[in-house]
Amino acid sequence: MYKFTKRAIDLTFAVTFLAISMPIFLIVMLLLKITGDKEIFYFQERIGYKNKKFYIWKFATMLRDGDYDGIGQFTISNDPRITTVGKFLRKTKLNELPQLINILRGDMSLVGPRPLTLDGFNRYSKEVQRTIYNVRPGLTGAGSIIFRDEVKLLDNCSDYESLYRKINAHKGKLEIWYQQNRGIRVDFAILCLTGFSIFFPNQTMIYKVFKNLPLLQDEDEIDLQVRQISKKRQFHNKVEFGV
Q1: Which of 104, 156, 166, 204 is 20 to 30 A from 14, alpha carbon to alpha carbon?
Q2: What is the pTM of this model?
Q3: Cβ neighbour number for residue 56 with a 10 Å cutoff
Q4: Plot region of 38 (φ>0 → left; ψ -120 to 50 → alpha; else → beta)
Q5: CA distances from 157 to 75, 225, 228 (A)
Q6: Hey, how many other C-beta atoms are within 10 angstroms of the C-beta on 140?
Q7: Measured between alpha carbons, how far is 122 from 127 in angstroms, rounded to an integer?
Q8: pLDDT, tens digit (0-9, with 9 covering 90-100), for 86-137
């Protein structure tokens, strides 16, 4: 029953939101066509349901060519490969909008574990690899909310690989948590939190809604940086709103 209801909600939302956002869709397509590499969509192979591969749709935000030593496969907030339009799309998450097509195709769901590249998938433990995609990957999820500013965590890091490994390990715990707690109510709460995080980005709200969510260890480097970003946000919000 849950799978049927979830799929019905996915289809209803995808069709409705595509229709509503079509003007935005067309404007972004036009801007991308006249800037950067003049490419509109970016297709990348990801791991999906039952560990089968599929191609995810995104708006193109980065230049294809360029030799940028020290960055490699990682993306940082001031990455020189990101175009001017791409920066706006990434900040507003509009670059993810074409994934509604993936939802219509049945590749993805609204809520679920983020679909990873093969390299990212291989970084997970065998336990996580066996279970993570027993459900369709999602447009958003607990990991997507908590690590919404993942690129900022990498900005001042000299060892991208080490920090990314820690981030990935905690994402694995979050995805297993979702497997154990998934349901319509959980999905609805995650969707609401996703919308909330766009306008009022704050990683702590999700922990108030889900009391049993896996926590980062206090001594963990990721936790320290996440809390620092959260404090900066709270300070800027107080200044902006005169609190």
Answers
A1: 204
A2: 0.79
A3: 22
A4: left
A5: 12, 10, 14
A6: 23
A7: 11
A8: 989 988 889 999 999 999 999 999 999 999 999 889 988 888 899 999 999 9
133 neighbors 178 (Cβ within 8 angstroms): no
Amino acid at 224: L
- Quote the tokens at residue 131: 């279970």
The DSSP code for 64 is S
Q: Do residues 113 and 62 lie in contact, with contact meaning Cβ atoms separated by under 8 Å? A: no
CB atoms inside a 10 Å sphere around CB 20: 10
Distance CA 156, CA 134 (A): 35
* pLDDT at 137 (0 to 100): 96
* pLDDT given for residue 215 in this prediction: 82
At 147, the amino acid letter reads: F
Cβ atoms of residues 151 and 77 within 8 Å: yes
214 near 177, Cβ under 8 Å? yes
Q: In the predicted model, is pLDDT for residue 69 greater than 60?
A: no
For residue 163, what are its two tokens?
Answer: 């920090």
Residue whose token pair is 């390299």: 119
Q: Tokens 């990434």 map to which residue?
A: 90
Three-state SS letters, 147-207: CCCHHHHHHCCCCHHHHHHHHHHHHHHHHHHHHHHCCHHHHHHHHHHHHHHHHCCCCCHHH
212, two tokens: 């049993």
